[in-house]
Amino acid sequence: MATIEQAKNWLKAADAIIVTAGNRYANYEGLDILSEGFTQEFPKWAKKTKANNIGNALEAPLSWEDKWAFWSDLIQRYTLSYQPSHQMEQLQAVLADKPYFIANSSFAHLFEQAGFAKKRIFNIFGDWTKTQCSSGINHGNTDDLETVKQFVAGNGKVPKCTVCGKELELHMPLNSNFFPDTDANHDFRWFITNNEKVNLVVLQLGVDVLSPQLVAPVINLVQQFSTWHFISCDLEASALPDNLQKRSYSEASDPKELLAKLVKEEK
Ligand SMILES: [Zn+2]
């Protein structure tokens, strides 16, 4: 396997960078959907949903009024009040002068809030600042931040689909009504196609079992394109295929630790 110094050189020489970010990355940006801190932070919703974390609470049956009031509290807390962490600033430094694309499994709109270009982000599990129709038919996605602000102010109304009149819900895979963002998926595929033959680095940050779509398929891509390199904080180097050992740097640490090493200047 390569050393961290080689990994830094790959990044410096890269013509393009793909970032894959998962649940462990979102944790450092303040959102941990499995944290039991939920019960202290949202006692009212913990009681109503009988859940001990956000993930379970999002699946609890509630009235439409309560759903939107609850979702609005979450979005206010984790997205509208969000302040980018130091790791986000370090990632901005890594991507500063490079063409990049971010494939992200958190639905909290964090990269957009931190200032990354919307056209360069694919939120594979949706984005809770947008809605989907609860009919199960894809009637498009609309923005919900105005609705959220009204609910937070105590005078919100459950939004309805302009096509069929059914209630709107968050654009997330909470049930079988979820359709991924096809435009962003298309943009991501184009980015891959256009960069098949250049020096590209895939930087994997905090991707775990909650988003398998960002693990094996991405490693397969790197195997397929011989000019690509892979840098990860999520795997022991020995877990990578033999034919990737020379083209990869991996450590079992966390996104914050790896980014700090990657941006550290030599004295
Ligand atoms: Zn509809």
Automatic annotation (TrEMBL):
It comes from the Bacteria. InterPro entries: DHS-like_NAD/FAD-binding_dom. SUPFAM superfamilies: DHS-like NAD/FAD-binding domain. This is Deacetylase sirtuin-type domain-containing protein. It comes from Lactobacillus gigeriorum DSM 23908 = CRBIP 24.85.
